[in-house]
Structure formats: structure tokens, C-alpha cells
Amino acid sequence: MTITESRTDLPALATQYAENGFVLVKGLLSKQEAASYRETSHRLLARLNRDDDPTWQSAMGMSEGKTRLQHLHDAQFYDAAFSRLLVDPRFTDVAAAVMGVEDVQLHHTKLFVKPPENGSPFPLHQDYPFFPHKYHRVGAAIFHFDDAPEEKGCVRVLPGSHLGGPREHDPSGSFHLPEVPFDDAVPQPAEAGDVLFFTYLTVHGSGVNISDEARTTWLVQYRDPSDPPTVKTHDHSLGQGMMLRGVDPTGRSGV
Ligand SMILES: O=C(O)CCC(=O)C(=O)O
């Protein structure tokens, strides 16, 4: 099951998101824009030439050989093109509609490149345990800057899994959900320009990139500013608390 909608029908998006915990919005960016962001992403990572690999410890057993992942936190602090995307109403209007709120606040961002042939997978997990919030009005948008068919290790989700609320995650090392079979999660193949929105309670992960092309995505995590964190974690992220849409009615008390 892949739940896809056009970004212009906001009530339909909100309904799909409420029922399934995710929605794939087709063509939110044009192919040209996606190609430009892809180029910017790869150029930036090549220029920084960092050698850190964020592959999860718990992902090691998901493939035969060693896998690799390139990443960059806070890309909007390196290139203004990413800042523009953060406040683009094509994105923020959907983020607000699916959360059922007016105001959208930045939590953090992560640029990922899964290299060809051995791009690292992500074990199934909720994002909730990494940064729990009181009312769970926290979501993610994954921008696809190139095509992500299943063989490129596209994102997978467990439809409706958000409805059961927070789950107990394996506390050893990186949080994940060893009891949920990986194959239960439904692949969400996407094209360049598509954006996958999901709640931080939706169980998700992704497979190994076994194709001969990189998979390039930008993950933006956002929240309702009226939803306070219950634990102060992840507050090293640059720009956390920046308003992407509307106002912060709390006067920054949650930041
Ligand atoms: O980009 C992906 O394949 C999944 C990323 C993810 O699940 C995460 O960063 O929490």
C-alpha cells in the first residue's frame, strides 16, 4: 500500500495521514528543482569531505557486506538553498495540514546520501524515543532529490502503526524495534520531487541501496510549537525552534 496524494488537496492529505500515519506527496518539487538540490547536496558533501558514517549499529546485520552512509546535519547552515526549502509554503502548508495545526516549528534536519551498491539501511523504529513530546504533534518530511525505487533502499512504513502510540524500543545502542519483521513494512518508492510525510510515531525504516545510483534525501523534522518536549534531547541541532510557518504562541518556552 502506497498512499499518494496531490499536495493541493490538503483535507485529503490530512485524512490519509490520520488513518495511515503517512502520506507520499507526489511532485511537491519539480524534477528540475529536485535535480538542482541533488547537485547541491552532493557538491556540499564532497566539499566537506567528512569521514563520519552514521550507519546504525543495529543495521549491520541487515546485509551481507559492510554498508555505508553519508550524512550532514543542519544543511540549511551550509547552503541557503536549504533554508529556502524550510519555509517554502508547498512544504509548510502540508506539514501544518497533516498535523492539524497552523504553526510549524523546526526540530532538525538531516541530509542523507545512500551510496550505490552498499548504501546503509535503517532498521525499523519510531522517531519518538529520540525526542519525545507531550502531545506527539511531531512529524517528518523526507524530500527525494532523486528517484528512490525499492532497490535504492526507499523508505518503508508500517501503515497505521502510529495509532498504537509510543512503543518500547531496544535500549541497547541505537533504538529500534527488533520484534517487527522488516518485511511487514511497506516500501514507499518515490520519484525525484516527491515528499513523504509521516508522524514520529509511525514505524519506519529503509532497505539497502543495491542499485548502481546514489539515493539522495533531505529529512526535515518539525513540530507544533505548542507541543513541549518531555525530555531535553537533540537540542544540539542548529536552528531548532525556528518558525517555518505561523507563530510560536508560547514565546519560545518549548525551545
Ligand atoms: O532515510 C531513510 O532511509 C530513513 C531515515 C530515518 O528513518 C531516520 O533518520 O530516522
From TrEMBL:
Record bears the keyword Oxidoreductase: yes
Top-level taxon of the source organism: Bacteria
Sorted UniProt keywords: Dioxygenase, Oxidoreductase
GO molecular function: dioxygenase activity
InterPro entries assigned to the protein according to its UniProt record, in alphabetical order: Phytyl_CoA_dOase-like (IPR008775)
Coiled coil (UniProt feature): none
Protein name: Phytanoyl-CoA dioxygenase family protein
Species per Swiss-Prot/TrEMBL record: Kribbella alba
